Amino acid sequence: MKxxxxxxxxxxxxxxxxxxxxxxxxxxxxxxxxKGHRVGRHxxxxxxxxxxxxxxxxxxxxxxxSGVEALVAPHVLKREFDVRAMNQVWCGDVTYIxxxxxxxxxxxxxxxxxxxxxxxxxxxxxxxxxxxEALRMAVQLRGSxxxxxxxxxxxxxxxxxxxxxxxxxHGLLQSMSRKGECWDNAPMERFFGSLKSEWxxxxxxxxxxxxxxxxQRYVMRYNNVRLHSYNGYRSPVAMEKLxx
Length: 244
Description:
244 residues, alpha/beta, Nucleotidyltransferase, domain 5, 2 domains, five-stranded mixed β-sheet, 42% helix, nucleic acid binding, IS3 family transposase ISCfr25, RNaseH_sf, Transpos_IS3
């Protein structure tokens, strides 16, 4: 085998390891191309076969919202997920992660422009305090923009008076998915799906600290390293820099 191909295979294996074995031939080809290598999906698949590696993704889990509905906002977003600038539309949601024999809840806020995660929070209790904390982080990180449309499902964490007051405090507008229509918030569904299938161990974590550190590591990777097809196979941070 040619030395050049062996070197290329070594780079591919490294990217595959960094993805925790979740990256497939398409993603690996795009990553190698970003490094200046002339590699198509067919060659990436061939190199994966030679290296004895394959894409492996865990079974997806879904968080089910529960609780009493209070303040339901109209479905303003209407699945218009393509936006022209940063801080026009943010999406939020909550998922659960297994920690020992319990569940830890993870709330995230995503800017639709480049699919960047701009706020997040963790708690062993899924309530409005959790979602307010994630929202405050997003507001601080993004420089307190006004009149951002914030979209979520009708989970009790978002329909609460506490969360509505937090929205008003920061001058944000609110939109909610229709009841039972999870794809009204598809970008968040996809982000959590990627987190669960690519990163979180199938058996969960042994401690809350371990879970927090590892999930935040994924957020950093997702924002700065992971190539997103929506961004023309650029990371969210790279896409925002390109648009700045």
